[in-house]
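Lecture notes, unit on protein representations.

Consider one protein chain, 166 amino acids long.
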Amino acid sequence: MMSSMALSSASLCSSFVSQHPKLSVTASPPLFTSQTAKPISVKRKIATLAAPEALTAETVPGIDTSDSTPQPTSKVVKPDEKSRVVLKFVWMEKNIGLGLDQHVPGHGTIPLSPYFFWPRKDAWEELKSTLEAKPWISQKKMIILLNQATDIINLWQQSGGNLTSQ
């Protein structure tokens, strides 16, 4: 199998007229001994090393190639989208964890705090002190997040830690 791949890759390399490759085929042990793993195609590796002037365009039936100029792709972020602080929680049978993340549009989320677990510690107080330590979070947003945390803790207490009981 390996020798047939080496021979076909040698013929692939020699077909490029603009290059003068020096290819030596030596016997070596197989790279993969597992029956389930498939080796990477040698053709693919060598084809990526070809000079741009040696490559020719292939036409594929069913694909319109009339506009061959590549269109730039960019991620559109709405100008009114701002980064926001989000309350995250982990709902468990005996504990509930509360934490803060900052969601930045176009970039993902950044953790702002670890998870604070209730009833082991007073997660609400720890959350409040974390919010107060971040001066860029407004008082209004802080109150909203703490009210959400209160609602989640109360819901967790009423359900006894079971999400399905309503």
